[in-house]
Amino acid sequence: FSSVELTEHYLQRIDRLDERFNSFITVTAEQALAQAKAADTLLANGNAQPLTGVPIANKDIFCTEGVRTSCGSKMLDNFKPPYNATVIEQFNQQGLVSLGKTNMDEFAMGSSNENSYYGACKNPWDTRTIPGGSSGGSAAAVAALLTPAATGTDTGGSIRQPAAMCGITGLKPTYGRVSRFGMIAYASSLDQGGPMARTAEDTAILLNAMAGVDYKDSTSLDVPTEDYTANLNQPLTGLRIGLPKEYFDTAGLNPEVADTVQQAIKVYESLGATVKEISLGSTELAIPAYYVIAPAEASTNLSRFDGVRYGHRCDNPVDLEDLYTRSRAEGFGAEVQRRILIGSYVLSAGFYDAYYRKAQQIRRLIKDDFTAAFNEVDVIMSPTAPNPAFKIGEKSSDPVTMYAEDIFTIGVNMAGLPGMSIPCGTVNDLPVGLQLIGNYLDESKLLNCAHMFQ
Ligand code: GLN
Question: What ipTM does the predicted assembly reach?
Answer without folding.
Answer: 0.98
